[in-house]
Specification:
Number of domains: 1
Number of strands: 40
Largest sheet: 22 strands, antiparallel, barrel
Shape: globular
Number of helices: 6
CATH superfamily: TonB-dependent receptor, beta-barrel domain
């Protein structure tokens, strides 16, 4: 690929300059527990001591303060970076492969130039308990991942804005997250935390790092990662990490490699992803730290879309050839300040950051048509955001032990989109804006109390948010622009009762909201020849959620378990609906985004972990979720809800070598749990599947680790509901949507000691 050599040289030269000119460091700190699930902070330190097999994991997403996962009033799971690396994850779809209630939709690349967008968005979004897309909040080091956006054949997802090689942990919070973070977290929040220098530095060492190479047969991808960190003068610490991943199309079980629409084998893809993460931290005093983070990612993908080619006999507009070039860029700069002094009188902790992020997606396609005019499409979507966040913490004494956390979040985004190309649709001329350039402002203030009284933790929280969308009419040819502003108040109340180590029930009641996106408030498209147009809606309201979760946790010697039941209800769902018109050029059908319908999602989940002696650990988890939506009094199944999933796992760790096995069962999708289509065509309901993955690691030397994974050991032929939904039962290309067969992954890592 063009630019490979330049990139490697760039990383190398930057790495050299970084350590010669800027001696730098980590954002680490000692943490201990106060006995009630809360983390306390001490002096800055790093440790190279390996964790026990069964961890008392810490979450900072549930309450925005450090608490044990077992001491929060909702379901949170933490996926460490070591697990991500051990299982050979290439992207976020792999990261959540063994989560029982989290999936990532990624359809095959079968899009067209101007109409269909199947697979164009890559890893589209994260689904938590039946909701996905912009209804799930995604954060990287506290900064929001850009929104997903689609228009015609253009589709921009969210999952490809992330690189797993720079992640040290992923936290998944279930249930509304608006009290903590504001808009978007209707279904929950996923927080990605990037590596810190302390993660690469051994205790007392002045320099550390690693180099890793990996290869995966599922997409014939090769990834090389170099990470280095240093410490100097007891004040400066720093990290620099670079990754280059190159690969091809993801394999499936399709065997028809025809060069036309009947094809079921994957379309040829050539991609590369370049990622750079840099961090520098200055410890001004034991209680004060300043930090800066630079993150940049560039992803390039070229696709030969054989599946878009027509089968003879050919019409005038039949496609003879379609080539696509997609580009994704994300750059982030964050400045952090941290204060931590447990002996201070009234304010013991401050976490604050100022950030800037620029993310853009460009999708270009060129289409050779039979006798009709050839055409191109050059579409783009961009979000530039600047923001500030601050969290303060005060621990109050007296007869009632209480920790108060409070703060503000403010962000201002500039969101733009452009449709360009040649041979535009009748009645249009390029370039066009699918929605007006919009300034999107979010401002929120929150307060939370963590009250400890006896065996009870009582955690109330309240947040006030205000949002405003201010569009510009410059260059916009759609209907009159709409300015929209509104506000939301979102409370939550959680209780944890530590009745006994084996019996610790909890409950939470929470509300959430999602503000309308700019392309929903204002959207302009007119095709009078086909008799339809779209228009903005000045009365669009936020989507809202009411959630109840109750659960039970416990531990006894080597056994841990948790059971949770939840009931989530959603109002004012936003969708595009026909509001007027007869569908003629003189009286076109008018479509508008409106608040339309309600939804209800309920479910039960259970997880358990058992340690057998010092080396064996077994895990099990199962989730059963059901959901329905109601529109105009008619109730239908919610297709984004996945069928029952069961995961069984075991691992053996002998320090110098180990092995693991994961068995995953997905129940088939029942036809009566799929929403009917119009016109009525029976939907495809994939059958159940059982898939076994197997992995080993070996440390021939203290600082050398080899990981090997064999996925889908028995070469099972199956479909994932998240990827195949929407396909008709009479489709002749079902095999194009199959999951990969047997595939292998291997990596070699060398740590600098």
């Amino acid at each position: 690929m063009n630019g490979m050599v330049d990139f490697r040289g760039w990383v190398c030269s930057v790495s050299t300059a970084f350590f010669v000119l800027t001696p730098i460091v980590t954002w680490g700190q000692d943490e201990s527990m106060d006995g009630r699930g809360r983390a306390t902070h001490g002096a800055v330190a790093e440790t190279g001591t390996p964790p026990p097999l069964i961890l008392d994991e810490i979450t900072v997403t549930s309450t925005r303060t450090e608490r044990r996962v077992d001491d929060v009033p909702n379901t949170v799971t933490v996926i460490p970076g070591a697990t991500i690396e051990r299982e050979g994850a290439r992207d976020i779809k792999d990261v959540f492969r063994n989560e029982i209630d989290v999936t990532v939709r990624a359809a095959p690349t079968r899009f067209t130039a101007a109409l269909g967008s199947t697979g164009r968005a890559g890893n589209e979004s994260i689904n938590i308990r039946g909701l996905e897309g912009n209804q799930v909040l995604m954060l990287v080091d506290g900064v929001r991942v850009p929104k997903s956006f689609s228009f015609g054949a253009f589709a921009s997802g969210r999952g490809d804005f992330l690189d797993v090689d720079g992640i040290k942990a992923v936290e998944v919070l279930r249930g509304p997250a608006s009290t903590q973070f504001g808009s978007d977290g209707l279904a929950g929040a996923v927080s990605f935390r990037t590596l810190d220098p302390g993660d690469l530095l051994k205790s007392g060492a002045g320099f550390g790092g690693f180099i890793r190479s990996s290869y995966a047969t599922v997409d014939r991808s090769l990834a090389n990662t170099l990470g280095v960190a240093g410490r100097r003068n007891g004040q400066w610490q720093g990290l620099l990490l670079g990754t280059l991943r190159q690969g091809n199309e993801t394999a499936n079980k399709g065997s028809n490699d025809a060069l036309n629409v009947t094809r079921t084998a994957p379309n040829p893809v050539d991609y590369d992803n370049r990622y750079l993460l840099g961090k520098a931290i200055l410890t001004l005093a034991v209680t004060h730290q300043l930090g800066v983070t630079l993150e940049t990612q560039k992803r390039r993908q070229d696709t030969e879309v054989y599946s878009a080619r027509a089968v003879p006999p050919l019409a005038a507009a039949s496609t003879l050839d379609l080539d696509a070039r997609d580009r994704l860029d994300r750059d982030r700069l964050s400045l952090q300040y941290r204060f931590n002094d447990i002996k201070a009188s009234w304010l013991q902790r401050v976490e604050s950051q100022v950030y800037w992020q620029d993310a853009k997606v460009g999708q270009f396609a060129t289409e050779d048509r039979n006798t009709a005019l050839d055409r191109t499409r050059d579409n783009s979507y961009r979000e530039k955001v600047a923001g500030v966040s601050a969290l303060l913490e005060s621990n109050l004494g007296g007869w009632l032990e209480q920790r108060l956390s409070y703060g503000v979040d403010l962000s201002r985004s500039e969101i733009t989109g452009v449709r360009d190309g040649t041979a535009p649709p009748p009645g249009e001329s390029f370039p066009l804006k699918p929605f007006p350039d919009t300034t999107y402002t979010l401002a929120g203030a929150f307060a939370q109390s963590e009250i400890e009284t006896g065996a009870f933790s009582i955690i109330p929280g309240l947040r006030f948010d205000r949002y405003e969308l201010t569009p510009s009419s410059t260059g916009y040819t759609g209907s009159a622009v709409v300015v929209l502003s509104d506000q939301a108040v979102t409370p939550r109340l959680g209780v944890v009762w530590r009745a006994a180590p084996t019996f610790a029930p909890y409950a939470q009641v929470a509300q959430g909201f999602r503000a309308p996106a700019p392309d929903q408030v204002n959207n302009g498209f007119t095709n009078l020849a086909s008799g339809y147009r779209t228009t903005g809606n000045p009365n669009l309201k936020s989507e809202r959620a009411d959630s109840i979760e109750i659960g039970l946790r416990g531990k006894l010697e080597g056994l841990r378990y948790s059971i949770a039941a939840f009931d989530n209800r959603y109002q004012d769902f936003i969708s595009s609906q026909r509001v007027s018109g007869a569908g003629t050029p003189a009286n076109p059908t008018v479509f508008q985004f409106v608040n339309f319908g309600t939804a209800k999602i309920r479910g039960v989940e259970a997880r358990t972990e058992m340690q057998f002696g010092p080396r064996w650990v077994a895990n099990a988890g199962v989730a059963y979720i059901t959901g329905d939506k109601k529109i105009n009094g008619v109730t239908t199944p919610l297709d984004t809800v996945n069928p029952l999933k069961l995961v069984l796992a075991a691992r053996y760790d002998a320090a110098v070598w180990g092995t693991r096995a994961n068995l995953q069962y997905n129940k088939g999708k029942e036809p009566d749990r799929i929403a009917p289509t119009t016109p009525v065509v029976p939907p495809f309901a994939p059958s159940s599947s059982t898939v076994l993955d197997f992995g080993v690691f070996w440390k021939p030397m203290r600082n050398l680790t080899v990981n090997a994974n064999l996925n889908n050991v028995f070469d099972t032929y199956y479909w994932r509901w998240s990827d195949v939904r929407g396909l008709a039962d009479n489709s002749t290309i079902k095999d194009a949507y199959t999951a990969p067969g047997r595939n292998a992954q291997v990596s070699v890592r060398y740590d600098f000691l």
